[in-house]
Fold this sequence. Notes:
Layout: H1 4-16, E1 21-24, H2 33-46, E2 51-56, H3 63-69, E3 75-79, H4 85-91, H5 98-111, E4 115-122, H6 132-138, E5 142-147, H7 171-180, E6 187-190, H8 192-195, H9 220-223, H10 225-229, H11 236-241
Parallel strand pairs: 1-2, 2-3, 3-4, 4-5, 5-6
Amino acid sequence: MLPIDEAKKGLKLLVNAGMRKVNFAGGEPxxxxxFLGELIRYCKQDLHMESVTVVTNGSLVKEKWLHxxxxxxxxxxxxCDSSNEQTNMxxxxxxxxxxxxxxxxxxxxxxxxxxxxxxxVVCRYNIDEDMNAMIAKMAPFRWKCFQVxxxxxxxxxxxxxxxxxxxxxxxxxxxxxLNRHAFQKSLVPESNSIMKSSYLILDEYMRFLNKGVKEPTxxxxxxxxxxxxxxxxxxxxxxxxxxxxxxxxxxxxxxxTALDF
Length: 261
């Protein structure tokens, strides 16, 4: 992980190049709560970024942290792959209290004026579930349902850090899950066909990732954002198809749209 001054330098370079929204994801960002909080504050207060999101499993979010940093955070996105705790544990989410944690976090987000979002990866272990009641209870403004994606060299075999082959589902199975939840107004589907390469993702060294295409770019701290962008594959058409532009500022802020880095 970069020193915080280097991380801030990279964020400033991105804003100067036109970035107006950022997602902090991981791993788990809340393993480093002070570091995360300062970067969120910096993005909103110093760089005047339109929208800041953090993606978390929810287990390490403390209300004390929210008291300090909620004013700078537009969206809290949580990972929830099942309404069954046994399935969550099988997938690797929590230790039996994941749903309770997320419901409490959804309430805290409303209390602190943070937009609450749910991310679900639809896979072999949850494909037959009905998550309608749980989603209604959490009441997210946006429920992103991803079709589990296998990326060559990243999660496609026993030789990679993770192997997602046992989680894969067919396009028809994915559509059946979507049909079961179609009346959820917050539902945003994201199939394999539009997910891959539709995101601009930076790693902890400020390198753009070329998932499943080629090696990461050089760090923007070394070559700058324009040069790095020339070496990254970003599918802008798929970005538009997946709804990459939406209203993402918290209530009380001017609503706008921008590129979802």
